[in-house]
Design goal:
Protein name: YkgJ family cysteine cluster protein
Organism: Pseudomonas kermanshahensis
Order of helices and strands: EEHEHEEHEEHEEHEHEE
Number of helices: 6
Helix content: 25-40%
Bound molecules: iron/sulfur cluster
Shape: globular
Largest sheet: 5 strands, mixed, barrel
InterPro entries: Puta_zinc/iron-chelating_dom
Strand order of the largest sheet: 3-5-4-10-8
């Protein structure tokens, strides 16, 4: 457990390179409107069953949504993220953010963790060593020390809860209905942005789509099918399976 962490951003820009930045629904609309690409990341679990991290029960339930899968129900968590395989499109040649005043919530929160079950570990972050040797206290005990930053973290968690039903409806409208099992991997889609923006502009109604879980492990497949879940191990065409 972390007792106290001090921090001051050095402006190195590393967190703006090679990171897919999770977006709220409104931020995803803005990203699409400015011709940015969104990547959709999906993972699923069964309540008190496969894929559910028991110690994070409340957290994962609140940011997930029930969907039909096989002859039972799974819950899916959906992340809409700015697709940044290299430098973020908003990072200029001087490593400055060109949309600084309108940057996404997650950009304002980094390097603090949003998941309350993940402690901040400087060694897992992109920030250089000197960033952790200067500045005000960032973490005190297990709490974010700055109340304004703590409020941003809460706002991000709340957006995850508020947005999940709409995100699932958008996925279903665009046929993005294959998920990985939480803890085993996730599926990643790069939607055509015209269709994605249109769906976001007017969030579609839940069309009752049936979902499938992508797994590549025979034992896990048998386990999931034993729970009544629909699975596939076919080579993906319209998405990528990112296994752990
Ligand atoms: S939007 Fe700005 S702060 Fe966020 S990753 Fe891009 S350049 Fe960095
Ligand atoms: S990696 Fe850390 S130090 Fe560098 S710009 Fe991002 S938050 Fe600041």
């Amino acid at each position: 457990m972390t007792d106290s962490v001090q921090f001051a951003c050095t402006g190195c820009g590393k967190c703006c390179t090679g990171h897919h930045v999770p977006l709220t629904l409104d931020e995803a609309r803005q990203w699409a409107a400015s011709a940015g690409q969104v990547v959709v990341l999906i993972e699923a679990f069964v309540v008190d069953g496969p894929g559910m991290p028991v110690e994070q029960r409340e957290h994962v339930l609140r940011r997930s949504h029930p969907v039909a899968c096989g002859d039972t129900e799974a819950r899916v968590s959906v992340t809409f993220a700015a697709f940044n395989p290299g430098r973020c499109r908003n990072l200029d040649d001087n490593d400055l953010c060109t949309i600084y005043d309108q940057r996404p919530l997650v950009c304002r929160i980094y390097p603090v963790e949003i998941n309350p079950h993940i402690p901040l570990r400087p060694e897992n972050k992109d920030c250089p060593p000197e960033a952790w040797q200067q500045g005000p206290e960032l973490i005190h005990g297990t709490q974010v020390a700055d109340p304004r930053l703590a409020a941003l973290v809460q706002a991000s968690r709340q957006a995850d809860r508020d947005d999940i039903a709409a995100k699932v409806a958008v996925c279903q409208a665009l046929g993005m209905t294959t998920s990985a099992l939480k803890g085993n991997g996730f599926t990643a889609y790069l939607p055509e942005m015209g269709a994605f923006a249109a769906a976001l502009a007017q969030v579609p109604a839940d069309n009752g789509a049936r979902w499938t879980l992508h797994v590549q492990d025979d034992e896990l497949t048998a386990n999931l099918q034993g729970h009544g879940l629909q699975t596939t191990c076919e080579a993906p065409v319209y998405y990528a399976f990112i296994g752990f």
